[in-house]
Design brief:
322 residues; disordered N terminus; Alpha-Beta Plaits; 15 strands; 30% strand; D-Maltodextrin-Binding Protein, domain 2; alpha/beta; five-stranded mixed sheet
Length: 322
């Protein structure tokens, strides 16, 4: 498809229509089915020592980069949806998954908390990745030619000042940062740009026109490496633990549960609540806490069981950077 003869409004509508077709329509699913089968066949022929890691997004995405940081020689398997990522781990199609769980600016990825709760998976490791956004175009394209900029909605929101300084560029949501570069290159669209990582530009043979266009340089994403619970490794001397629990529906139950942890000297570094599906006004609490010993982690779980209707340990691991 070419946009060379389109007027600006037509260009934007055509881009949106094409993006929606790729992301949500039958065209996407047909292409995805055709592409995924040979990809999995290729992976099946690789050495067994290479860990297959599923990610949400394309090669060159930040999740891809995080996966390589955690397991350098991993065979990365891109998936379109987070639910597909978790299903691939659960059914044994892949060995593990790397998922973003929290961004320092945008906050938690709540869908991934819900999926962790409903799958029998464990967090094995975590890593932090500095998020650096770049304006990416086809080779030779100048900034004056750009009429539309594609990227994931979170990435677009993190580059508001740059976009405001270039009002001729219309922000257009895509399903993935690296996926927006892939689409740009596949369509050979010289009137559009993408916002994504340096790795995405390299992988798809595109060009970085402007680097570091994010509003805030203190932009980090925390990623989990998750595996099936029966196969997850617990590394020596874990110093962090993630838990999910729901409290009994009576006054003071949440305070009592948290007091148990405080009395043990366990430091909570994060607490997040999520609604229980199908039970209005009931909540599951997700917490991260620092632990000094593996035994302290076990004691914390047992202490919570006295006050909670449900407790699920999501994993014990070493804190990123420790």
């Amino acid at each position: 498809m070419s946009f060379g003869l389109c007027e600006p409004v037509d260009f934007i509508l055509a881009c949106k229509k094409r993006c929606l077709a790729l992301c949500y329509g039958a065209e996407k699913h047909q292409a995805q089915d055709a592409a995924s089968k040979p990809a999995l066949m290729r992976l099946a022929g690789e050495q067994e020592t290479r860990m297959k890691i599923a990610i949400q997004g394309e090669h060159g995405s930040f999740s891809n980069e995080a996966a390589k940081n955690l397991v350098a020689d991993a065979a990365v398997v891109p998936c379109s949806l987070s639910a597909d990522v978790f299903a691939a781990v659960a059914n044994g199609t892949v060995d593990a998954a790397v998922i973003p769980i929290e961004n320092s600016l945008a906050g938690s990825v709540t869908e991934h908390f819900d999926l962790l709760l409903t799958h029998d998976l464990k967090v094995e490791r975590e890593t932090l990745l500095r998020i650096r956004h770049n304006l990416i175009v086809l080779p030779g394209v100048t900034i004056d030619e750009i009429e539309g900029v594609f990227s994931h909605p979170v990435a677009l929101a993190q580059c508001r000042r740059f976009l405001a300084a270039h009002p001729a560029m219309k922000a257009l949501a895509a399903y993935d940062t690296a996926g927006s570069v892939k689409q740009l290159v596949e369509l050979r669209n010289r009137r559009a740009a993408a916002i994504a990582s340096e790795a995405a530009a390299r992988y798809f043979g595109a060009q970085i026109l402007e680097a570091g266009i994010e509003d805030n340089p203190e932009n980090f994403t925390r990623f989990f490496l998750v595996r099936r619970a029966a196969e997850a490794m617990t590394y020596p001397e874990p110093n962090k633990m993630s838990l999910a629990f729901s409290v009994e529906n009576r006054p003071g139950s949440l305070v009592a549960a948290l007091t148990e942890l405080a009395d043990m000297g366990t430091n909570l570094t994060k607490i997040e609540s999520r609604p229980v599906h199908g039970k209005p006004w009931e909540y599951v609490f997700f917490v991260d806490c620092q632990i000094h010993t593996d035994e302290e982690g076990s004691l914390a779980v047992e202490a919570l069981r006295h006050h909670c209707a449900m407790v699920k340990e999501l994993g014990r691991y070493r804190e990123a950077g420790s």
